[in-house]
Design brief:
Elements lengths: L12 E2 L3 H14 L18 H8 L2 E2 L3 E3 L6 E3 L3 H21 L15 H6 L12 E2 L6 E2 L5
Parallel strand pairs: 1-2
Antiparallel strand pairs: 3-4, 5-6
Helix pairs in contact: 1-2
Length: 148
């Protein structure tokens, strides 16, 4: 009877590495129009939109990969909570700095560890992550890697 003309070809599932997915994300970022934000490839649950990445991946990964909306870092399935925590804390840090024009770091901490207490006092943190985050030198971005 009726057939759909715009049926998308079914992509096969493959065991892709985080490196493969990272390369595809970079290729997509280079090819996308400048007025389109990279965040369009990030779904609400922080998984990637593999349909948009299909021309670069040529497959769908077997395991899910997650990307932080705030930092665009890519994570494997076992690090999903880290991606969620980064988004939570980075957003709170940005809001804190807008409100106070101060850095939300623990006073006199040489590693510039983020102060959850300061963020909570401003009602910017819905839950306290179980790991520490640190302020980097790059545009007030956070990282989970302790500086040396």
């Amino acid at each position: 009877m009726w057939s759909r003309k715009n049926k998308k070809p079914k992509l096969e599932k493959k065991d892709l590495s985080i490196h493969d997915v990272r390369k595809a994300v970079h290729a997509y970022a280079d090819a996308k129009p400048s007025d389109v934000p990279l965040s369009v490839i990030i779904k609400e649950d922080l998984t990637l939109d593999y349909e948009l990445l299909a021309p670069y991946l040529k497959a769908v990964p077997i395991q899910n990969f997650y990307m932080s909306r705030e930092t665009y870092e890519l994570f494997e399935e076992q690090d999903r909570n880290l991606a969620l925590d980064i988004d939570l804390v980075q957003h709170a840090v940005d809001q804190y700095m807008k409100q106070t024009q101060e850095l939300p770091v623990i006073d006199d901490d040489p590693y510039k560890r983020i102060s959850y207490y300061k963020l909570e006092n401003h009602h910017l943190l819905q839950r306290r992550p179980e790991r520490d985050f640190y302020l980097t030198k790059e545009e007030f971005m956070i990282t989970y890697k302790k500086p040396e």
